[in-house]
Amino acid sequence: MRTYAGHSSPAESNALYRRNLAKGQTGLSVAFDLPTQTGYDPDAELARGEVGKVGVPVSHVGDMRALFADIPLETMNTSMTINATAMWLLALYEVVAEEQGVDVSKLTGTTQNDIVKEYLSRGTYAFPPAPSLRLITDMIAYTYTAIPKWNPINICSYHLQEAGATPVQEIAYSVCTAIAVLDAVRDSGQVPPERFGEVVARISFFVNAGVRFVEEMCKMRAFGRLWDTLTAERYGVTDAKQRRFRYGVQVNSLGLTEAQPENNVYRILLETLGVTLSRDARCRALQLPAWNEALGLPRPWDQQWSLRLQQVLAYETDLLEYDDLFDGSHVVAAKVEALVADAQAEIDRVQGMGGAVVAVESGYMKGQMVAAHADRRRRIEDGDLTVVGVNRFTTTEPSPLTTGEGSIQVVDADVESAAVEAVQAWRAGRDAERVDAALTALRDAAKTEANLVPATLECARAGVTTGEWSGVLRDTFGSYRAPTGVSSAVSGGEAGEAIAAVRRLVVQTSEELGRRLKILVGKPGLDGHSNGAEQVAVRARDVGFEVVYQGIRLTPAEIAAAAAQEDVHVVGLSILSGSHMELIPDVLRRLESEGVGDVPVVVGGIVPERDAALLREAGVAGIFTPKDYELTEIMREVVGIVRAANGLPAVA
Asked: For this structure, is 159 an active site residue?
């Protein structure tokens, strides 16, 4: 039983962990901030506004030491949601464990380390696909002997569903990722064939569970069947225990609503049933989101509420007392068979293209998911898919849970400056010669086929920072920008009267302004959750806008320069990480300096009302939050904003 937690600083997060453990939590699930996840120190340009917002900043071994102070790592099962920099964070964790006197071979836990889904959904990648796969391979080859109880990779279908994947896509693309990883490990020659079953046995999965909990339960049964077949037939694993499908779960966050957020408690409970009811497909670890995540950063009390839900289910009900409740069910069997067949067909399609990496680089998988997400949004807007409190049953009483100060957690504004000062002091106080030698050794090793874990461990012991470790590998491996999926996404069934009306308005406004309306959709900072931005870009294209969308991880300067160069009529900014108060005013200032300060800016994301008021005062023309689910209506409002900015009369 875990809650996904971490914020502000290592010391504050450590205090939160110890409180949660005292409440009965049985493991730790560490949330790192975006600079740590993407390989930047707190004083990097791209880290501005992001430090400590969505997780804890860890810049060096001293931070990791503070994060786990007074927590015995020998007895702790620690899950780390970290991908591009997973090797680095595991090295820091191992060094701290050594300092505690722990036999590292007894460490238990998980590094997420699934880089393929980062290109498809979360966006916290740092390097191109091939060298990223090498880092994963080296970690697996190291841990299966040095830390044999550690799960070096947690293949994540969770984030695929968050980005709009259907159950079939979720299964298929995760299995394709597993094939890419296991093939790479096998072909690296670092693991003897007779021990490959040990590698397979440490592969785990991190799965999403949506509110359609019967389908979700069938999905898990299908997942397990496909995994057993794959590991037996493709990799020749004969030990049934090593072929076991081991998975943990965080239930769905995509379906959590800003409108009537108290309803999310029921959604979370129902989603939990999907991965606990069936004994033969039951998750091994469970972490639940907080009910108010669509509003902002949850408070400790909100996390406690999620923990208590798990405890009631485990200790008060009779759920764990029976054999599988669904064996012999014809309904379940038929649904599982259909999922297996459809997922296998999609797996074969991706493998026929050359596998997961090729399907990432070509944009195929991303395009399929963007299209699936667009279809989901269309069904919500059309009323074909009911979301209680959003498109039906919207009349409500004021919620006492969301009123007043302190209804969400707010990260102290001084967190970032304190982290910047701390990392600069750390650099000044270490052995510079040892640091230089460690980084040189890492650089040299990266140019060969040597396993990079030993060089990374020496970097950790020498006091190298997260940004320095990643910087050496960026210099060696290069940078990468993943396909957005927007150009290939097809929006089916969206030619209704509402969208046609907005399309006519776009044509009329374009004619009045003398050229086609153009929108720049930008994601400033390190926030890689691009689902909303992609859907806005697709819908803007569908109503007739010319769309400029370059993907994630842009600086305010880059966005402003692109707006000027492309001569756009409106700029749309998407931020979900909580850094809107730092980054959006910066974009506004830079637009002014580029000579395009008259171009209106609209903002989408999780923006509390008090922040929205300040942003409007700063000059933002429109703000849209998760409760604004009708994209076509948003497009109509954006056209109205463009007309007003250009002195054109309003159109009813």
From this structure: yes
Locate CATH 3.20.20.240 in the chain: 4-289+298-382
Per annotation, catalytic residue among 53, 60, 117, 159: 159
Q: From 3.10.20.30, 3.40.50.280, 3.40.440.10, 3.50.50.60, which CATH number describes the 497-645 domain?
A: 3.40.50.280
Q: Which of 117, 219, 523, 569 is catalytic?
A: 523
More confident residue, 405 or 84: 84
At 636, which helix (H) or strand (E)? helix 631-645
pTM of the predicted protein model: 0.88
Give the residue from 457, 409, 550 showing the smallest Cα distance to 6.
409
Active site residue 266: no
547-596 pLDDT, tens digit per residue, is 999 888 899 999 999 999 999 999 999 998 888 999 999 999 999 999 99
Convert the pLDDT of each residue in 212-263 to its tens digit: 989 999 999 999 999 999 999 999 999 999 999 999 888 887 788 888 999 9
| Residue 487 binned pLDDT confidence (cut-offs 50, 70, 90) | low
Helix ranges restricted to H, 79-212: 86-99, 115-117, 129-146, 158-162, 167-188, 196-201
Is the per-residue pLDDT at 490 higher than 60?
A: no
For residue 207, report the phi and psi dihedrals to the nearest 5 degrees. -120, 150
The H or E element containing residue 541 is helix 531-542
- Residue 404: CB atoms within 10 A of its CB come to 7
Of 142, 144, 158, 629, the catalytic one is: 158
Nearest to 646 by CA among 573, 591, 569, 589: 569
Contact (CB, 8 A) for 453 and 461: no
At 539, which amino acid appears?
Answer: R
Q: Is 125 a catalytic residue?
A: no
Q: Is 60 an active-site residue?
A: no
Q: What is the pLDDT of residues 377-426, one digit of tens each?
A: 889 988 999 999 999 999 998 888 877 666 666 667 789 999 999 999 99
Catalytic residue among 41, 43, 63, 527: 527
Instruction: Report in angstroms the alpha-carbon separations of 465 from 79, 89, 141, 426.
Output: 21, 11, 24, 9
Please, where in the chain does CATH 3.40.50.280 lie?
497-645
247 included as an active-site residue? no
4-289+298-382 belongs to which CATH class?
Answer: alpha beta
Q: Quick: pLDDT tens for 303-349.
A: 888 889 999 999 999 999 999 999 999 999 999 999 999 999 999 99
Q: How many Å apart are CA 429 and CA 60, to the nearest integer? A: 13
Active site residue 527: yes
Compute the distance between CA of residue 87 and CA of residue 146 in angstroms, rounded to an integer: 14
In Å, what is the CA distance from 129 to each residue of 104, 159, 178, 220, 432?
A: 29, 18, 14, 28, 32
Amino acid identity, position 205: F
Residue 617: other Cβ atoms inside 10 A: 8
